[in-house]
Amino acid sequence: MKDIHKHSKIITAxxxxxxxxxxxxxxxxxxxxxAKVADGTIYLYFNNKYDILISVFEEEIGKxxxxxxxxxxxxxxxxxxxEIFATKHLQSMKKNKNLAEVIxxxxxxxxxxxxxxxxxxxxxxxxxxxxxxxxxxKQNIYCLDVEPGIAKRIFFGAxxxxxxxxxxxxxxxxxxxxxxxxxxxxxxxxxxxxxxxAAR
Amino acid sequence: MKDIHKHSKIITAxxxxxxxxxxxxxxxxxxxxxAKVADGTIYLYFNNKYDILISVFEEEIGKxxxxxxxxxxxxxxxxxxxEIFATKHLQSMKKNKNLAEVIxxxxxxxxxxxxxxxxxxxxxxxxxxxxxxxxxxKQNIYCLDVEPGIAKRIFFGAxxxxxxxxxxxxxxxxxxxxxxxxxxxxxxxxxxxxxxxAAR
Amino acid sequence: MKDIHKHSKIITAxxxxxxxxxxxxxxxxxxxxxAKVADGTIYLYFNNKYDILISVFEEEIGKxxxxxxxxxxxxxxxxxxxEIFATKHLQSMKKNKNLAEVIxxxxxxxxxxxxxxxxxxxxxxxxxxxxxxxxxxKQNIYCLDVEPGIAKRIFFGAxxxxxxxxxxxxxxxxxxxxxxxxxxxxxxxxxxxxxxxAAR
Amino acid sequence: MKDIHKHSKIITAxxxxxxxxxxxxxxxxxxxxxAKVADGTIYLYFNNKYDILISVFEEEIGKxxxxxxxxxxxxxxxxxxxEIFATKHLQSMKKNKNLAEVIxxxxxxxxxxxxxxxxxxxxxxxxxxxxxxxxxxKQNIYCLDVEPGIAKRIFFGAxxxxxxxxxxxxxxxxxxxxxxxxxxxxxxxxxxxxxxxAAR
DNA sequence: AATGAATGAGCATTCATTCAT
DNA sequence: TATGAATGAATGCTCATTCAT
Lengths: 200, 200, 200, 200
Hints:
Four copies of one chain form a homotetramer.
Chain A: H1 2-21, H2 28-35, H3 39-45, H4 49-73, H5 78-95, H6 97-111, H7 121-138, H8 148-163, H9 176-189, H10 194-199
Helix pairs in contact in A: 1-2, 1-4, 1-6, 2-3, 4-5, 4-6, 4-7, 5-6, 5-7, 5-9, 7-8, 8-9
Chain B binds a DNA duplex (21 and 21 nucleotides) through helix 1, helix 2 and helix 3.
C-alpha cells in the first residue's frame, strides 16, 4: 500500500507540474519536490520522464472513462448519452485543470514522439462518442449522412476547445451547463434558425 | 532581397523541423541544416529559438488571414462565409501540414510560456468566426440563443481537430470537401433528423 | 566531510588551471578534469565560473590573512610588523604560485567586471599595511609626512611585483629573504624618522 | 596616409574598448564600431585580436619610452632621473587611463598567453629604471647593497600600484605631484647613502 | 525501499575570422 | 581598399538518469 501511496503521490505531483510548466520545462526534481520524495525514488516507480507523462494520462483519463461508461450504461437515448458525455467531460476538466492542460497540450505534443505508445486509453475515450453516434443512427435519431468518424472529431475538438476557457484567464465565467448546453444545441440542432434550415 | 530569401528559407525550414520533431526536440542545427545555412546565420535573422517559432506562426498565419479576409469580402451570406472559412482553413492545413502541426501543438504549448507574446494574429483569425456568427444573427439567419464567443470555440475546436486527420496516419483519405461538408452540416443543422429536432 | 573534500579539490584544481591558462581561457572541463570530477559536479558546489574564481580567491587569501594576523598579534614593533607581513606574503606566494598569479592577474581583471563583488577580503588584507603604518606614526617611529593610504599602495605594489619573480622564468633564483630584505631596506629606511634611521 | 589614419583610429578605439571591457570581453565588432570601420577592415591592418592588443601596447608605450628617454638625456643626476621617470609615467597614466588599464591588467594577462611575444618594449621601459639605479651606484649616490634588478621591480611595482588610483573610484583626488612626491620620498631616502640623504 | 550526490551527454548561443562583392 | 553577411567551431551550463550508501 505504501508503494501505491508513493506512486499516487508522484502522479498527482507530476500532473500539477506538467500543467504548470509543460512537459519539457518540468524537471524531475520539480516533481520530486512536489511529491516530497527524492529524485531517485521516482525511478523506482517509473522508467523515465515520458513514462510519467503517459502514466499521468492513463491513470487519470482511466478514472474518467470508467465514470462516464458507468453513467452511460444507465442511459439508452443517444441524445442524453451525448449530453452525459459532454457534461462529465467538462466537469472533469473544470475540476482538474492540471489534467486538462496535460491532455490538451502535452499529450498531443508527445504523442507523436513516443512511438511505442499506441492503443491508448484516449482512443477508447473518444471512440465512446463514435459509438454513441452509430447507436443514434441505428435508432433512426441521428442523420445517416453524418460520418461517425468525422463527427467524433468534430464533437471532441469542440469539447476540448471550449473546455480551455477554464485554463485561460478570459471567459472563465461560463459554467459547465452553459457551455455544455451551447455545444449540444449546436451539435444536435445546428445554428441555423429552423425555417432557414428547411430552406437549405 | 537576399535577406528576405534567407529569412524565408529559415522560416520554411523551421516550420518543417518543428512539425516533425516538436519545438523542444528541434535543434537549431536541425533548422540550419534544413535551411542550408550555418547555425550562426539563424541568429542574424532571429533573436532566439522562441523568436523563430513566433515568426513561423505570425508569418504563415498572416498569409492565411489575408487570403480568407479577401475571400470573405466578396460574400454576404453568413452561411457561405462559414463555408469559405472552413474550406480555406482546411485547404491551408492540408497543404501545409507542417504549419498545421505547429499551430495545433507547438503554439498552444509555448503560448503559455512566452508571456510577452500577446495580441497575436491567431486571435484575429479566430475572431473572424465570431464576427460571422454575429453577422448571421443580425441577419436573422443564425439563432440568437447561440453565444458567439462559445460558438467560435466550438467551430474552431472542431475545425482543428478534423484537420488533424492529415497529420495522423489514420483516416487520411478524407478530402477537404468531405470534411468541410460534414462540419458545416453539423454546425449549421446539427446531427438530429429534422423531425426529431422538432420534437425536442 | 565528503562535500568539503570535493569543494576543496575543485578550488585547488581551479587555482591551478586559472594560473596556467588564465580565467577566460580556462574551461570548466579543464577544471573538472584536473579535479577528477564530472563537469556537472562543479555546479553542485559553485554557481558559475565567476563564482569559482571568487571562491578561489576568498578562501585562499582568507587563510593567509588569518596566518598573518596571528603572527602580527604577537608583535608590537611596527618595523618588525612590516617585516612579518612582507615575509609571510612572499612565502605564501612562493609556495602557492598558482594563487599568486590568480591574485596578481585574474582578480584585477575580473574585479572590474563583477560589479557585485565588493567588500572583499583583499581590502582587509592590504588595509593591514595601512594600519601598521599608522601605528608606527603614533609610536613616533614612522615619518608623519608619509600618507598611509599611498604608502600602503607603494608597499603592496612593490611586494606584488617582486613576488612575480617566481612566476616568470627569469630571476627565479632569489630567495624570500633576499627579496624581503631588499624591499624592507628600501621601504623602511625611507619612512623611518632620521634619528630612528640612524639608530638602525 | 589614409592607411596610417585607419590604423591609428583602430588602435585608439581598441585601447578604449580594451580598457572598458577587458581584452576577453571586448568584441572585434565593438572596436570596429568605435573606430567607425567595418569588422572586416580591422583584418586588413591586424592579423588577429591578440595582434591588436600587442600593437596597442607597443605603439602607445613606445611613445612614452621615447618621451622619457628624451627627458632623461638632458639630466645627469640619478635622483632627478628617477623623479623624471616617475612623474612622466604618472602623467602618462593619468592622461591616458585606457592605456593604463591595458598595461596594468590586460597585458600581464595575455603576456603569458602569447608565447611568441618576447623582448618587448615593456622590458626596455622598466630596464630604464635599472640603468638609472646602476648609474647612481657608479656615481656613489645610491647604496651598493641595493640589487638593481630587485629595486627596479620595487620601484615599478609601486609606481603601477599608485597609478591605479585614477582608474578606481576611490582616492582619485591625489595629484600626480603628491603621489610622485610620496613615492620618491620613500624610495629615494631608502636607497641614498646616509651622507647623501642628509644632504638632501 | 529510499536517498541525493554524482555523472556526462547534449545544446543554444556567441564571436573571431573569412570572403564574395 | 572596404564592406558586412556568413560561417561554424567552441563552451558554459542543465538535467535525466544512475548507483553507492
